[in-house]
Known about the structure:
CATH class of the largest domain: Mainly Beta
Order of helices and strands: HEEEEEEE
CATH topology of the largest domain: N-terminal domain of TfIIb
Strand content: 25-35%
CATH architecture of the largest domain: Single Sheet
Number of helices: 1
Radius of gyration: 20 Å
Structural class: alpha+beta
Largest sheet: 3 strands, antiparallel
Distance between the termini: 27 Å
Oligomer: single chain
Amino acid sequence: GVEVGPQPQGVVRADILDKMRKIIKHGLDFVQLFNEGKEFPPCTIEVFKIMEKVDYPRNKNDEVIAIIHPKLQDQDWQPLNNGDPLFLTLDGEVIAYKGDCTVYPTFINEAAYYEKKQAFVKTVKVKLTAKHIRSSV
């Protein structure tokens, strides 16, 4: 499967659909070239590895007591450093990120994840290296 977003549930966006089509085309082009016996050289790519799901701050009754801070909203895949604002309580208090490394939040304030108690997901950048590959055909 391919998921390209973000976009609200039940909404079809032309720009997102176009990106999805391009990704699928590249994937099919790769399969075609591989099946024709093309050799692909070694490569390294940077990816985001999920580290932790982060819930909204809650009180002892399990009620949400803070919302996503405006400076974090719509900042998926952008670096989040120690001290950067994460949440804003309903009475205006800023709750900052306390971490020992830079993370890259994603799925920030996604409606589909409210019921899963997920405000966002923390990811880190990692590099993956692939050896050369070639079809045995």
